[in-house]
Design brief:
- The protein has 153 residues and is an alpha+beta fold.
- It folds into two domains: 70 residues, 2-Layer Sandwich (Ribosomal Protein L30, Chain: A), CATH 3.30.1390.10; 70 residues, no CATH class.
- The strands form two sheets. It has a three-stranded antiparallel beta sheet with strand order 2-1-3, with helices on one face.
- The radius of gyration is 20 Å and the shape is elongated.
Length: 153
């Protein structure tokens, strides 16, 4: 599950050394890496935070600035539903389409719409706050799977 991304904020004064670091960290050719460095703030790698930290430190040692950010597009949220749905889309108990609440992807409006059209516990509180714990929810209240991000780093 890759949920962090390493971005190059500034290549710094030594482009050649930065390319060497990237060549060692990425499965890309020098040509691809040179093209990547032409982009504004390119995403270099995705993966676990601990893995990206080592590449970030190497880049910093060569004078480059790189940042690590949460990358929700890298989440495999269908895995959250594996215990409650055979197809990972519909509730195994009632067949309703599951709702996925994903940080930085699911909008406040989507959460409010879901809460207003569902019979889950605390639906009115969720609708008024526009927030729901990250996870998977059956709109009929059959199942809830709360995502745990404590062990992702």
């Amino acid at each position: 599950m890759s949920i962090f991304a390493l971005y190059l904020d500034d290549v710094g004064p030594n482009r050649a050394k930065v390319l060497q670091v990237l060549k060692g960290a990425c499965n890309s050719s020098f040509r691809e890496l040179k093209s990547l460095l032409e982009l504004a703030r390119p995403r270099l790698l995705t993966g676990p935070k601990w893995q990206l930290l080592s590449v970030q430190q190497l880049l910093h040692a060569k004078g480059a600035r790189a940042s690590i950010e949460f990358y929700p597009e890298g989440l495999d949220v269908s895995a959250w539903a594996a215990r409650v749905s055979t197809d990972r889309i519909h509730c195994s108990a009632c067949g309703a389409k599951l709702f996925f609440a994903v940080p930085k992807l699911t909008t406040r409006e989507q959460i409010v719409d879901f809460a207003r059209s569902s019979v889950i516990a605390n639906a009115s509180e969720i609708a008024s706050s526009g927030w729901i714990h990250p996870g998977v929810y059956c709109p009929c209240g059959c199942v809830t799977v709360m995502a745990n991000f404590d062990d992702i780093e």
